């Protein structure tokens, strides 16, 4: 997703000053993002208890910051991570977990239901949080959340507040087509159609809580916060 | 950290002593005593004329942290502390707005002042307005308010009042803040005292003729609720006795004394009889921010039984029980493990206590509370009306300030 802001601060005569201002704003967004992640890490790591197993899907820097802070606070937990096709970003998450000394198990995406009975919670990031309180995230999140719900495991989402979007998707096709395509890594007959979306929408009834830099919210509280943000 | 005055210190220490020794029990009594204590601390606190609200907040926070630590299980202490902090912040904000309006008025009226002074103060007022009324928004996410503007705002507002020689006005501003905060706490006390009556008033909306109501244990709120409904409706009540304290037996006798048709049952019989029941009504120890409730032990099972038979599970709770925290590990962190002698006598099990492996072979656990998740609760009846658990976040946002959720 892209975050577009309008600024009147670019009405400079001198292009150099305008460029400098743009760079400054870019750095500011980076700072805001880092600060947001720190707040979310503080809020989220309270929910990780000793002896718990956390299932995560793919790679999210926000989730990583929560897990890093929990590990730094000497909590004993283990992580199960999905491979995260088509990006295989789960491998990156596995490397990071090894680096901070957290026991990590890597599973293929199809093994989510198989492992759900032995995990305590599902923790994912989000590419976008929509008005209904649902999230848009890497494909496979909806599946994992549905399985978690049916087995009464809590589903926690970690997302910064600038990811809130004024969208209300009614089905899976309502999103913008993603730029990242799926590659099956072997040649297919030309008549075979490939489903190439790499994002899905998880409706709010499958989510338990959202950790944001504005606080911890239930999915029903999200639309109130959105109104505040877009005022 | 600002310490309260000596008299207030003595009162605080006395309250902490009582809390630690569990001489203060019950959320209503605790809430009341906490509010009265904080009112005393505030009224006796000397305030400097610069940033009086910040001093008040610091004092209440430091006292609050100590009394919360004395009994962390009694969540109403923390709730009342946060309510008082919210009152202080609100009163400060409304006084700021009023004084800004006053400055605006004086600017308009003081035409004989030099042009420079009036234009400067207009800019100051505009900056102050932006400061006070601005909420985080995506539109000004990257617009930074230069800190120099706020500094000049404070300096010149001080300069303004000095040059107008209204130092007396500042002291009256301090007095007004204290006065309105104490009024706010008095309203809070009134709300705490009248919560049973407010909740009971709504009984007629929920209990209808010839219904069967089920409850467990003994809750004052439920008792008042049922007695109020009895005045105009005929209905029956099933009371589960609520082991191991068996307070349900007391409630059953009280209801029978009031001529209500009551049936007393064992907790184990709840599932067998719940299909005959129209509604389950219980009291709560605390309501968490996600809409889940801390209730006396055994009620989670009754909630599951009610869900199984699609029977509404109604929880009565006062606003002072509303906690702005999320339940992270409610069965362990927020549970009170009482003495196992309620369940079994020590003499009966003393021979099983030496297992030879270091820990006893037979252990007894007596938790006081159960956590019922929000999807099992149908309705929360509070003193401001009936709400679904998904609405609780709105009530929390209205009665508490986000900065106070985590007290440090």
TrEMBL record, chain A:
Gene3D superfamilies tied to this protein: Translation initiation factor eif-2b, domain 2
GO MF entries: guanyl-nucleotide exchange factor activity; translation initiation factor activity
Record keyword Cytoplasm present: no
GO cellular component annotations of the record: eukaryotic translation initiation factor 2B complex
Keyword Protein biosynthesis attached: yes
UniProt cross-references to Pfam families, sorted A to Z: IF-2B
UniProt keywords, alphabetically: Initiation factor, Protein biosynthesis
Bilayer-crossing regions: none
Stated family: Belongs to the eIF-2B alpha/beta/delta subunits family.
Name by which UniProt lists this protein: EIF-2B GDP-GTP exchange factor subunit alpha
The organism of origin for this protein: Ceratopteris richardii
Automatic annotation (TrEMBL), chain B:
Subcellular location: Cytoplasm, Cytosol
Pfam families: IF-2B
Keywords, ordered alphabetically: Cytoplasm, Initiation factor, Protein biosynthesis
InterPro entries: eIF2B_beta_subunit, IF-2B-related, IF_2B-like_C, NagB/RpiA_transferase-like
CC terms in the record's Gene Ontology section: cytosol; eukaryotic translation initiation factor 2B complex
Gene Ontology MF terms in the entry: guanyl-nucleotide exchange factor activity; translation initiation factor activity
Subunit structure and binding partners: Component of the translation initiation factor 2B (eIF2B) complex which is a heterodecamer of two sets of five different subunits: alpha, beta, gamma, delta and epsilon. Subunits alpha, beta and delta comprise a regulatory subcomplex and subunits epsilon and gamma comprise a catalytic subcomplex. Within the complex, the hexameric regulatory complex resides at the center, with the two heterodimeric catalytic subcomplexes bound on opposite sides.
Family of the protein in this entry: Belongs to the eIF-2B alpha/beta/delta subunits family.
Protein name: Translation initiation factor eIF2B subunit beta
Organism per entry: Ceratopteris richardii (Triangle waterfern)
């Amino acid at each position: 997703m892209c975050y577009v802001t309008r600024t009147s601060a670019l009405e400079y005569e001198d292009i150099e000053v305008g460029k400098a201002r743009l760079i400054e704003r870019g750095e500011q967004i980076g700072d805001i993002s880092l600060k947001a992640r720190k707040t979310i890490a503080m809020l989220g790591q309270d929910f990780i208890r000793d002896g718990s197993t956390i299932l995560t899907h793919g790679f999210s820097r926000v989730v990583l910051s929560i897990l890093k802070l929990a590990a730094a606070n000497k909590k004993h937990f283990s992580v199960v991570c999905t491979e995260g096709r088509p990006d295989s970003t789960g491998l990156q998450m596995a490397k990071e977990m090894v680096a901070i000394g957290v026991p990590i198990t890597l599973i293929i995406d199809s093994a989510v239901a198989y492992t759900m009975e032995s995990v305590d919670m599902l923790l994912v990031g989000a590419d976008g949080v929509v008005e209904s309180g649902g999230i848009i995230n890497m494909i496979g999140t909806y599946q994992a959340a549905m399985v978690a719900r049916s087995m009464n495991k809590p589903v926690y989402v970690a997302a910064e507040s600038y990811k809130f979007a004024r969208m209300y998707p009614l089905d899976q096709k309502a999103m913008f087509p993603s730029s990242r395509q799926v590659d099956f890594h072997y040649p297919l007959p030309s008549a075979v159609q490939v489903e190439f979306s790499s994002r899905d929408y998880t409706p709010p009834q499958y989510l338990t809580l959202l950790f944001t830099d504005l606080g911890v919210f239930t999915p029903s509280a999200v639309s109130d916060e959105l109104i505040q943000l877009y005022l | 950290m600002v310490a309260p005055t000596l008299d207030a210190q003595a009162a605080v220490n006395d309250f902490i002593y009582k809390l630690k020794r569990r001489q203060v029990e019950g959320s209503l009594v605790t809430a009341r005593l906490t509010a009265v204590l904080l009112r005393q601390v505030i009224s006796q606190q000397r305030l400097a004329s610069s940033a009086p609200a910040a001093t008040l907040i610091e004092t209440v926070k430091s006292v609050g942290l100590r009394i919360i630590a004395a009994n962390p299980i009694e969540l109403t202490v923390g709730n009342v502390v946060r309510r008082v902090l919210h009152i202080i912040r609100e009163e400060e904000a409304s006084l700021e707005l009023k004084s800004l309006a006053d400055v605006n008025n004086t600017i308009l009226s003081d035409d004989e002042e030099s042009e420079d002074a009036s234009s400067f103060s207009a800019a100051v007022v505009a900056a102050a307005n932006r400061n006070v009324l601005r909420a985080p928004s995506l539109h000004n996410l990257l617009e930074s308010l230069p800190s120099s503007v706020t500094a000049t705002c404070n300096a010149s507002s001080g300069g303004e009042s000095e040059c107008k020689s209204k130092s007396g006005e500042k002291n009256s501003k301090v007095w007004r803040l204290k006065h309105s905060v104490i009024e706010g706490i008095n309203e809070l006390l009134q709300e705490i005292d009248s919560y049973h009556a407010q909740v009971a008033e709504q009984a007629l909306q929920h209990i209808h003729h010839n219904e069967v109501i089920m409850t467990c244990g003994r809750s004052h709120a439920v008792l008042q609720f049922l007695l109020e409904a009895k005045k105009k409706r005929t209905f029956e009540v099933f009371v589960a006795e609520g082991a191991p304290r068996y307070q349900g037996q007391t409630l059953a006798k009280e209801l029978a004394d009031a001529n209500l048709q009551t049936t007393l049952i064992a907790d184990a019989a709840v599932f067998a009889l719940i299909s005959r029941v129209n509604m389950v009504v219980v009291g709560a120890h605390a309501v968490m921010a996600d809409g889940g409730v801390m209730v006396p032990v055994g009620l989670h099972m009754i909630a599951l039984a009610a869900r199984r038979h699609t029977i509404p599970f109604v929880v009565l709770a006062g606003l002072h029980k509303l906690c702005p925290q999320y339940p992270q590990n409610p069965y362990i962190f927020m549970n009170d493990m009482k003495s196992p002698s309620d369940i079994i006598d020590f003499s009966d099990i003393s021979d099983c206590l030496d297992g030879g492996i270091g820990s006893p072979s037979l252990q007894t656990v007596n938790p006081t509370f159960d956590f019922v998740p929000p999807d099992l609760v149908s309705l929360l009846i509070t003193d401001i009306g009936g709400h679904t658990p998904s609405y609780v976040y709105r009530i929390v946002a209205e009665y508490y300030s986000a900065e106070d959720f985590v007290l440090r």
